[in-house]
Each structure stands twice: as C-alpha cells, then as structure tokens.
Design goal:
heterodimer; A: mainly alpha; Four Helix Bundle (Hemerythrin (Met), subunit A); 7 helices; 76% helix; B: 102 residues; mainly alpha; Helix Hairpins; 75% helix; 0% strand
C-alpha cells in the first residue's frame, strides 16, 4: 500500500525542486509565477503523501489559488514589458547569481548533514485527518486563531490604506 | 511498514528554503524577492508538516495554517507597497529603494 505513495512523494518532491529552481531564475515575472504555481501544486501532492490531506487542500486553494493570483494581478497592473526583460537580463547576467548560490548550497549541505546524522528516525506513514486538526485548532490553539484573525484584519486595513490613490493637487 | 523516512521530508523542506534564500539574495526585482520569500515560507511549512506526520499529531498542520495566515497578510501589504512604489519610481529595482521617507 505504501509503495505508490512513496513513489508519488519522490516524484512530487523532484517536480517541486525543479520548478522552484526555474521559478527563481526566470527573466519574465509571469513565467516565474507560473512555475511557482507548479511548485505549490507539487508541494500539495507531497503533503497528501505525508498524510496531511487538509493542508494539501489548503495549499492548493490558498497558496496556488489566492496568493499566486494576487501576484499575477499585480504583474498585470504593473504593465511590465520588454524593457523590463532586457533590464532583468542585464541584472541577472554574469556572476551576480554565483555567490548567493554557493553560500546557499553550503548552508543546505550543513542542514542535510545535520538531518542525516541526527536522530530523525521514523516514517511518515501516519495520516492526520481534518477532524483531528480542527479539534486541536479550535481547542488548545484558539488564541492562535484569534491572533491570526487580528493579523489578517490589520493586513486588510494596511493594504487598503496603502493602495488608496492620493488626491492629485 | 516502509514509508517515506522523516529525514527526506525535512531535507525537502531544507532544499526549498535554500532555493528561496538563494533567490532572495540574487534577484534585484522586488517582485521576485517577494516570490522568494513565499518559497522560503513554503519550505518551512513542509518541515512542520513532516514533523507533525512523524508523531501523528495535528500540531504540525496547525503551525502550517498559521504560516499560511502570516504569508497571506505579508503578501497583501507587500504587494500594496510594491504597486505604490512602482507608481512613484517607475521601476522595481531594489537598489533604488532608498530615501523612501523623504
């Protein structure tokens, strides 16, 4: 039973890594966002194979559905054209990406070494369904839900205020 | 029971976080810097869900929900700032983002 799920985990993880790498290296912003949607959808498959179906659904609905559509609308509002692509090519050429890539790779190698050499035993075979998550969310984590709602309310007020057109003198 | 080892889930989260960090450092477009921050938050979420699944507890998924709420709030405010900045300066170059308080 766990054979196909294992294979799905590794395939989806590979798709997530490749599409994320493509997303951060595109010159056109819309292409980067489309690759990022693929990355989020494959991470949703990873969540499902880890036994977290509720979070997989929310990843599709909120991350790939709401947040990325917000990004796409902003890109459409900004009217980015070929001038920006040429400028982006100029910024991204040469050794601009080499230093950050090497430093991040060193940090990643350290993290992988610590994970592999540490005491992280056990498998991801347990399924935690929506019922358990909901009971814990509205039980011991109630204060967190309230704080998150206040954070979102503050974000709504802030975004509305910032995007208001000031009156032209 | 031959399931996926927990370390592979954590390593996937680490890889996504490192890719996001590299993108944050190497891009000069403010929009793609925000995209890289989203990738980093997503990598942290993968690690949380993997840990929650390892011990069959809902806490990892709940932490992911809080990360989701924080990401949504951050993106809405940051994109509003970005649109305002683009109207003011006509570019998304991060190097020109100085003297914003003047």
């Amino acid at each position: 039973m766990s054979g196909p799920m294992e294979a799905a985990f590794y395939v989806a993880a590979a798709v997530a890594v490749v599409s994320t790498l493509l997303a951060i290296s595109r010159l056109v912003a819309v292409h980067a966002l489309l690759y990022l949607i693929v990355s989020f959808l494959s991470v949703a498959v990873v969540f499902y194979t880890m036994g977290a179906p509720l979070v997989a659904t929310l990843e599709v609905i909120i991350y790939a559905g709401a947040i990325l559509v917000l990004f796409l609308f902003v890109v459409m509002m900004l009217n980015l054209g070929t001038r920006d692509r040429d400028q982006e090519r100029q910024w991204f050429s040469g050794a601009a990406w080499l230093g950050p890539a090497i430093l991040s790779a060193i940090l990643l190698a350290e993290v992988i070494y610590l994970i592999v050499s540490g005491a992280t035993t056990g498998g991801l075979s347990a399924t935690v369904g929506p019922k358990e998550v909901a009971l814990a969310l509205y039980g011991p984590y109630m204060i967190g839900v309230e704080l998150a709602s206040m954070l979102l309310l503050g974000a709504v007020v802030g975004a509305t205020h910032l995007s208001k057109q000031e009156a032209r003198p | 029971m031959n399931a996926v080892p927990m370390s592979h889930g954590l390593i996937l989260g680490g890889i996504l976080f490192a890719i996001g960090l590299a993108g944050l450092l190497m891009r000069r477009n403010l929009l793609l810097i925000l995209v890289s921050i989203e990738v980093m938050l997503n990598g942290a979420g993968v690690a949380f869900v993997a840990a929650g699944s390892r011990w069959a507890q809902p806490d990892g998924q709940i932490m992911f929900l809080f990360i989701l709420a924080a990401a949504a709030a951050e993106v809405s405010v940051a994109l509003a700032l970005l649109v305002r900045y683009y109207r003011m300066r006509g570019t998304l170059d991060a190097d020109t983002a100085r003297g914003l308080g003047e």
